[in-house]
Design brief:
By secondary structure, the protein is α+β, with helices and mostly antiparallel strands. It has 4 domains: 100 residues, Thrombin, subunit H, CATH 2.40.10; 103 residues, Trypsin-like serine proteases (Thrombin, subunit H, Beta Barrel), CATH 2.40.10.10; 87 residues, PDZ domain (Pdz3 Domain, Roll); 98 residues, Roll (Pdz3 Domain). 20% of the residues lie in helices and 34% in strands. The chain is built from 12 helices and 26 strands. The strands form 4 sheets. It has a 7-stranded antiparallel β-sheet with strand order 5-4-1-2-3-7-6. Strands 20, 21, 22, 23, 24, 25 and 26 form a 7-stranded antiparallel β-sheet that branches. It has a 6-stranded antiparallel beta barrel with strand order 8-9-10-13-12-11. Strand 25 and strand 26 form a beta hairpin. The radius of gyration is 30 Å and the shape is globular. 34% of the residues are buried.
Length: 473
């Protein structure tokens, strides 16, 4: 019996020492409370949806009732837009989109492409109140527009702007807008990607990507985080059919904040200027620079007396961050600089010859030096009908000129059927030389053209090519 007693005590001790079985995360469980069954986005929607509005636009277009044959460029080459026959008719084009109230006084953010060229803009609130809207500012470069409505002193529901840099891939978001004109609609999803570069949407290709369903009519609507703040303005979708495929793009709230602040400060959108350009660091470039991992932007040009030059930035430096935010592409660098407030002191994190360091620079607008001196050229010479201006940092930023020249005379427009059109001059061309004389500014160009010549030798810069032609006077 003593031996049996010892055996039983030993077995009991072993059982007590064994760890208790634990439930694994994969084990399904039945909801055990009403709260778990009724989890819903409804409270968040009730909080945010009243600040999202429907926007209806209309514009009157004139159209001649003649055969479509006369829309052919061959006929317009001779007759232009004013055909000498046919009957002119007016018709109204209507469009729709969405917007977000960001101030209780009636300031609304939407997309530029929603209200571009509109003659009348009507804003409809979620409670079906209607207001005529006025355009405060519309900026094609960022594809953002600011509208204002007058609610007779009544405070309107609005959304607070979030810091979109705090978003992470996987965060839950709601997209609110008016898809296909069916009325206000809410869809849910996650942040699929950040800093997505999608060429052709804006000058600042830096977007939040989401799989929340976004469709035509959602443009200008809200992308909302789970705390009820606005993290982005829905702007575009990737689609082959016109409907959502789960790839939507939103302009980050930090760009919205920068546009609002810019307008508040000066009445028009002012984009900060770094005064430097670079290119993406590829694997080959990383190896040549002695970097372990490709990333950042290697500086290829620094403007004299620009903020970057005064900060000490040099050609060959690799920019890795702005104010601690990573910079992986040239688009990311432009975005990071563009979203800093004018007048701020910001920092560039760089790698110089294998050494990490920080450079402080002043966030300032690009200077308009020399003054642009916009001029439409007239007279008897090959450039008649061209509208030209002096290149300056301000004009370069404004028109999105991406050529390598920083000074000179740029073509802004060409009149139809003019001598400049027959020369096939294009907006964005830079007049480099005429009859062997370098062109420094518009005044010098006018003086040279007014002298006349029996023969004109003209050199222009188009992109990275210099084109030359000779024409008899």
């Amino acid at each position: 019996m003593p031996a049996m007693r010892k055996f039983l005590l030993l077995a009991l001790a072993l059982l007590i020492a064994l760890p208790a079985p634990v439930a694994t995360a994969q084990q399904p469980a039945v909801p055990d409370s009403r709260e778990q069954i009724t989890l819903s986005f409804a409270p968040l929607v009730r909080q945010t949806a009243p600040a999202v509005v429907n926007i209806y636009t209309s514009r009157v277009v004139r159209q001649r009732t003649v055969s479509p044959l006369f829309d052919d460029p061959f006929f317009r080459r001779f007759f232009g837009d004013d055909l000498p026959f046919g009957r002119s008719q007016e018709r109204t084009q209507n469009a729709l989109g969405s917007g977000v109230i960001v101030d209780p006084g009636g300031l609304i953010v939407t997309n530029h492409h929603v209200i571009a060229e509109a003659d009348q803009i009507t804003v409809v609130l979620s409670d079906r109140r209607e207001f005529d809207a006025t355009v405060v500012q519309s900026d094609e470069g960022t594809d953002l527009a600011l509208l204002r409505i007058d609610a007779n002193g009544t405070a309107l529901p609005h959304l607070t702007l979030a810091d979109s840099d705090e978003l992470e891939v996987g965060d839950l978001v709601l997209a609110i807008g008016n898809p296909f004109g069916v009325g206000q609609t809410v869809t849910s999803g996650i942040v699929s990607a950040l800093a997505r570069t999608t060429s052709g949407i804006t000058d600042y290709n830096f977007f939040i990507q989401t799989d929340a369903a976004i469709n035509p009519g959602n443009s200008g609507g809200a992308l909302v985080a789970m705390d009820g703040r606005l993290v982005g303005i829905n702007s575009a979708i990737y689609s082959r059919s016109g409907g959502s495929l789960g790839i939507g793009f939103a302009i980050p709230a930090n760009m919205v904040r920068a546009v609002i602040a810019s307008v508040d400060a000066g009445g028009r959108v002012t984009r900060p200027w770094l005064g430097a350009e670079g290119q993406l660091v590829t694997q080959d470039i990383a190896q040549s620079l002695g970097l372990e991992v490709p990333g950042g932007v290697v500086v290829s040009r620094v403007d004299d007396d620009g903020p970057a030059a005064r900060a000490g930035l040099r050609v060959g430096d690799v920019i890795l961050s702005v104010n601690g935010r990573p910079v992986d592409t040239t688009d990311a660098l432009r975005f990071r600089v563009a979203t800093r407030p004018i007048g701020e002191r910001a920092t560039l994190g760089i790698n110089r010859a294998g050494r990490s360091m920080e450079l402080a620079f002043d966030v300032e607008p690009p200077p308009e030096m020399p003054p642009r001196d916009v001029t439409r050229l007239g007279g008897r010479h090959p450039l008649t009908g061209a509208t030209v201006a002096n290149l300056s940092p301000a004009l370069i930023e404004e028109i999105g000129y991406d050529g390598s020249l920083r000074r000179g005379v740029i073509v802004l427009g060409v009149a139809r059927n003019s001598a400049a059109a027959r020369l096939r001059l294009q907006p964005g061309d830079v007049v480099v030389r005429i009859n062997g004389t370098a062109i420094a500014d518009v005044a010098a160009l006018r003086r040279l053209l007014n002298r006349g010549a029996e023969q004109w030798s003209i050199a222009i810069r188009r992109g990275d090519r210099t084109l030359e032609t000779t024409i008899r006077g």
